[in-house]
Write a structure and sequence with these properties.
This is DUF4431 domain-containing protein. Helices cover 17% and strands 40% of the residues. The chain has one helix at 3-21; strands spanning 26-34, 39-43, 50-53, 71-81, 95-110. 21% of the residues are buried.
Length: 112
């Protein structure tokens, strides 16, 4: 097979894998927990956590003192959910969600 034939085939295979992995953006309500090791979203009505990826700074309060911020917020986000797997700190989350937009935030608690 010539190189010119292989390049379009390789591009097609890469695109089909990437396109299958991504999904339609969805709106999710839940509790967002954050600290120096975690950024996890527990969707409303579920017990599993999803690793939150992307800019979640709107849902985080500034750190107290010299430490890093940590706390919990009730959020509504729009993002794309991953395939099932092991995500986040120590693989404890069942999915990852690539957050496109933080739609609303209600801060519930803040760390020390």
């Amino acid at each position: 097979m010539k190189l010119t034939t292989r390049l379009p085939l390789a591009a097609l295979l890469l695109c089909s894998g990437a396109c299958a992995a991504g999904g339609e953006p969805t709106e999710v309500r839940g509790i967002y927990f954050y600290n120096f090791e975690n950024a996890a979203l527990t969707p409303e009505g579920q017990s599993e956590c999803w690793e939150a990826r992307g800019d979640m700074s709107a849902a985080e309060l500034p750190a107290k003192g010299s430490g890093r911020p940590w706390g919990r917020s009730k959020v509504v986000v729009r993002g794309v959910l991953s395939e099932p797997g092991k995500y986040g700190n120590m693989g404890t989350c069942t999915h990852a969600i690539d957050v496109i937009e933080v739609l609303s935030v209600e801060h519930l608690s803040q760390g020390p």
